[in-house]
Amino acid sequence: MVLWHPKRLNTQYNSLPASLRSFLNEVTEEIPRAPLETRVLNSIELELSRRLSLRNQHFATFFKIKRRERNDADLPYRKIGAGSCGTILAQEGQPFVVKVAKTDGNALWNDYVMHASIADQFRIWSVIEVKIPACHYFVPKGNPYFDDKPTLLQAAEQVCNMPKDALVTERIYPLPLRTRDLLIENFCAEQDKSAARRGPENRDCLVRVYLGSMWGGIGRSFSLRNFRLHLNQMADLQLDAKVIAGRIATALAVMHWAAKTDARNVEFVLASSSEKISENFLGREIQTFEQPIYTGPPSNVHNDFFTRTADLWVLDFNQVQPITMDEAGVATAVEAYKFNDPYFPRPLRESRIEKVVWNEFVEQYLGAAHIIIREEENTRLLPLPGKFISGLIALERHKQQRD
Question: How confident is the model at residue 304 (pLDDT cuts 50, 70, 90)?
Answer without folding.
Answer: very low
